[in-house]
Write a structure and sequence with these properties.
CATH superfamily of the largest domain: Metalloenzyme, LuxS/M16 peptidase-like
Structural class: alpha+beta
Oligomer: single chain
Radius of gyration: 30 Å
Distance between the termini: 84 Å
Strand order of the largest sheet: 12-13-14-18-15-17-16
Largest sheet: 7 strands, mixed
Helix content: 40-55%
Shape: globular
Strand content: 15-25%
Length: 940
């Protein structure tokens, strides 16, 4: 009967093809979700429009440009990305920054909800979560999209003002990953234009190009046959379509357009290529065999089926590497064999091994042997079936949550429909396709993926390693010798060692009882007291369909332990999670959990210990079993502990530190300020770790259910949950005692502490300010501190990024804690030209001084409106309700009370924020650091 009903539903959604028949001819095109309105205007522009109420009263606007850096001439190197920036710096309708000002005055934040990106092949803009109830705002957003298509101002004044910003973005992006890629690019892309274009471009061009070049690029490439717009949200589709047709049809078609198709091709190579890249921030050696494959998504069901086959292959071989990594003698630090993406029209088959310097040949041999084992013998049926179960479970979970797909989720998916030819069917089609097609995928098809992609043509080898290791790294001849030796070896077949009929929890515990029940009317929740003293706070919530979350918390944490125990406490968090659970080691656990959505984790924090778990509604009992086992049946494996300790000692042998690690170590040393509990990770630290003490600490933290509050929120009714609560939480051991955290004092450096620190870097300085102050707790104090952060964001963007062009962006983070005492924190960071570091730092300090005296009403209005908007839909998430309940039990405060948030925002004034800024900044201890090139310090 169910199949008949599904077939009838499929007929309704997909026309005359029944669900049972629709997948027999896989050459058919995958149908676009019929709720998406789409069309192509006479000038070639494509549009997509969809009504969606996640979130309600919001809409998101996208424009997809089939344009990227690959289309630039040498004189335009970097201008595709530069042009993206200019779209926010003035159009015919919105001169200069008036567009951003208008959007932010309506609660839409630049950088977070107004953004764009450029790659070699595409440029995408978005305006997200726009309030649709504001009169005329949707119309203005459509005009912005229209202007981005065809009416950018591109004034010389704004172009010159943006040069500094993009110069600093160029500087910021020059990290280790970028430098390594630049060395490998000529080989990866076989000397094609892709090897010459990195989106950000050349600094000389950025600083000096003639404005006519960017205007020429705009005219040639921002044209309707290479553009699509998407509007998704709580909108009237008919009305929006009418507006789109009227607005965008008026854009003229470019006569004699330049061809787009010839730019995105990589030449074939019949013989293997080889490249080495080294960098001072690379610590280990990675050896990769890569095979480049031209690829085109044709939108057929056969193509979709093939993606599932490749996904299964990737998953199965990844699992085999995970099993090897459990062994102490694993010869590699990391391993990858997968079919993945390279560029829009190319896939790459990658076989990669990461090892310590000098051990790369053995590591690559092991990885290639695993691949060859699959080529020789294929995968096992048991492996395949478990992976299919996981895919089916995931598909069902997605289907049950089909009404929760966000407007921005659709916006991003539609980008791939337009730019990559991807499919976007409705939820019914996707679910039925997986249910009917995936189970029929044959073992031979999955096993054949390796042979299909491991071709000789378009093969290239890459090796990356530490700076100075070039002469010692594995050569092309040595890589090929490893491959030849493995292919001619008699390899043993893989054996699946998971016990047949293994169970997660073979013996059920003796249930406890619910001995008390209290209604929490304000929260529409209930508190159950169990016979072991545990308290369970439960709230039914079904906005997130088929989703359940649990958090159990107790006070204590690492604060309960002396300094000598802290390394073993750290081992609890770092090691125990890798041992498995109950009778199951990690590999067996994954196999037993095939097809299940339940998961669990734990953490011992500074002042609390926490068990967290989640599942879909069908797997709640499995989730509850996992929670029970975290307390009663943790797994401790001394062999695995020894293996991980050996790896940790091995890590210490590598004395090379990346610039990032040097910065982190320096900051830690300064900020801990002699705190005896802030231990350095070194040989002595590892020597203090102890397996027996680690196990004792774990059991001490998770042995007393009566000291825990268990919060459960989600789509499971009380009558279903109650017996599980009694069985799996009521049966957990309890000692009857209660604990509280301990206060070990505050060690943040007092006063103003200034440092200028040299690093082995060339063209970049990093300014870092960290402030910390004790405070008197109130809701106003916390909220005003958050408002202050957002106002500083606006000021720094306007005055330091835009006016000065001094940095790509000033990052501001604020924090507030109430345990062990109320303290407020603020962190300000940015990168810049070393010659401008002191000057820009002075501007930051000037803004901090100014905000204590003069907060603009317009800035406050923008920030408050955005905060209100972002808070509107938070009650639609289970995590929000967990937070509400936990906050009430931790502090006695009701987050649903208007005085907790809404009322404070409503009455906030500029004077309040100025006073909050003065109170914090004048009382704050400060760490003031500039990290700069060592060469500058040598000049002092």
């Amino acid at each position: 009967m169910q199949r008949i009903l599904l077939a009838l539903l499929g007929m309704f959604l997909l026309g005359n093809i029944t669900v049972a028949q629709q997948f027999t001819d896989l050459s058919q095109q995958i149908p676009l979700d019929p709720t998406i309105r789409t069309g192509v205007l006479t000038n070639g522009l494509t549009y997509y429009i969809k009504h969606n109420e996640v979130p309600e009263k919001r809409a998101s606007f996208y424009i997809y440009q089939n344009v990227g850096a690959i289309l630039e001439t040498d004189e335009q190197d970097g201008l595709a990305h530069f042009l993206e920036h200019m779209a926010f710096n003035g159009t015919e309708t919105f001169p200069a920054k008036t567009m951003l000002d208008m959007l932010e005055r309506n609660g839409v934040k630049f950088g977070k909800e107004i953004n764009a990106y450029t790659t070699t092949d595409e440029t995408v803009y978005n305006i997200s979560k726009v309030p649709t109830a504001v009169d005329g705002l949707v119309d203005l957003c459509l005009i912005i999209l229209r202007d981005w298509c065809d009416r950018l101002a591109l004034t010389e004044e704004e172009i010159n003002a943006e040069r500094g910003v993009i110069t600093e973005e160029w500087r910021t992006r020059r990290n280790s990953g970028f430098r390594v890629h630049a060395q490998l690019a000529p080989t990866v892309y076989n000397g094609s234009k892709y090897a010459e274009r990195d989106a950000i471009g050349e600094l000389d061009v950025i600083k000096n190009f003639d404005p006519k070049e960017i205007r020429s690029f705009y005219h040639d490439w921002y044209r309707t046959d290479l553009q699509a717009v998407a509007i998704v949200g709580d909108i009237d589709v008919d009305a929006i379509e009418k507006q789109v047709i009227e607005l965008f049809s008026a854009i003229p078609t470019i006569e004699n357009p330049v061809s787009r198709s010839s730019a995105d091709t990589i030449p074939d190579n019949d013989e293997p290529m080889y490249a080495v890249a080294t960098d001072r921030d690379v610590k280990n050696v990675t050896v990769s065999l890569n095979v480049r494959h031209k690829y085109h998504t044709d939108g057929t069901m056969a193509n979709l089926r093939e993606t599932y086959i490749e996904s299964i292959f990737n998953s199965l071989i990844k699992q085999r590497f995970s099993e090897i990594m459990q062994n102490a003698d694993a010869p590699f630090l990391g391993a990858t064999v997968q079919v993945g993406g390279l560029l829009r029209n190319y896939k790459v088959f990658k076989v990669s091994a990461t090892a310590r310097e000098g051990e790369e040949a053995a590591a690559f041999e092991e990885v290639y042997s695993v691949l060859q084992q699959v080529i020789n013998d294929g995968f096992n049926e048991s492996e395949l079936e478990r992976t299919k179960l996981n895919i089916l479970a995931g598909a069902e979970n997605n289907y049950n949550k089909r009404d929760q797909y966000s407007s921005d989720g659709y916006g991003k998916a539609l980008k791939n429909v337009y730019l990559k030819g991807s499919s976007l069917p409705d939820a019914e089609f996707s679910y039925q396709f997986v249910k009917e097609v995936v189970p029929e995928i044959k073992l031979e098809e999955v096993s054949a993926v390796a042979s299909k992609y491991l071709s000789d043509k378009n093969r290239y080898y890459t090796v990356t390693g530490p700076l100075g290791s070039e002469d010692d790294l594995i050569t092309q001849a040595e890589i090929e010798e490893v491959i030849s030796n493995v292919e001619s070896s008699d390899l043993a077949s893989y054996t699946d060692h998971t016990p047949i009929n293994a169970e997660l929890l073979p013996e059920k515990p003796q249930p406890g009882k619910i001995v008390g029940e209290k209604m929490l009317e304000d929260f529409d929740a209930v508190e159950w007291t169990l016979s072991n003293g545990a308290k369970v706070i439960y709230r039914f919530a079904d906005f997130q369909k088929n989703s359940v979350r649990l958090t159990a918390q107790s006070y204590g944490g690492t604060s309960m332990y002396n300094v000598e125990d802290l390394p073993s406490v750290a081992a609890v968090n770092g090691f125990v999670k890798t041992f498995g659970i109950g009778d199951l080691d990690p590999i067996s656990y994954k196999k037993v959990m095939a097809g299940k959505t339940a998961s669990s984790s734990f953490n011992v924090g500074p002042y609390t210990e926490v068990v967290a778990a989640s599942s879909n509604s069908a797997d709640v009992e499995t989730m509850m079993q996992l929670v029970y086992m975290r307390f009663e049946q943790p797994r401790f494996d001394e062999e695995k502990y020894d293996n991980q300790m050996a790896r940790n000692y091995k890590k210490l042998e590598n004395k090379v530190k990346s610039v990032g690690e040097l910065v982190k170590d320096t900051l830690n040393t300064i900020l801990v300020n002699g705190n005896p509990r802030a231990l350095k990770f070194n040989e002595y630290y590892l020597d203090q770790m102890n397996f027996e003490r680690m196990e004792e600490i774990y059991r001490e933290r998770f042995s007393n259910a009566g000291d825990f509050y268990f919060f459960i929120v989600g789509d499971v009714d009380a009558e279903t949950l109650k017996p599980m609560v009694e069985e799996y939480i009521g049966s957990i051991s309890s000692t009857g005692t209660k604990e509280m955290w301990m206060d070990h004092g505050n060690y943040f450096p007092e006063g103003i502490n200034t440092y200028r620190i040299g690093l082995p870097t060339q063209n970049k300085s990093s300014v870092y300010l960290k402030m910390n102050a004790k405070a008197k707790y109130s809701r106003e104090t916390i909220i005003y501190h958050t408002i202050l952060k957002s106002i500083l964001d606006l000021r720094f963007t306007e005055n330091i990024r835009e006016k000065e062009g001094g940095t790509y962006g000033v990052g501001v983070k604020t924090s507030a804690s109430i345990i062990p005492e109320t303290r407020l924190g603020m962190e300000i960071r940015f990168d810049c030209d070393p010659s401008k570091a002191e000057y820009l730092r002075s501007l930051v300090l000037a803004e901090l001084d100014e905000v204590q005296k003069n907060v603009k009403q317009a800035d406050l209005d923008k920030v408050v409106l955005n905060m209100k908007k972002n808070a509107e839909h938070q009650d639609e998430k289970n995590t929000y309700w967990l937070n509400v309940l936990q906050t009430y039990y931790d502090t006695g405060e009701n987050m649903l009370d208007p005085e907790y948030f809404d009322a404070v925002l409503e009455r906030a004034t500029t004077k309040d924020i100025e006073k909050a800024a003065r109170t914090f900044l004048k009382n704050a201890d400060v760490v003031d650091i500039i990290f700069e090139p060592e060469s500058l310090q040598s000049q002092l």
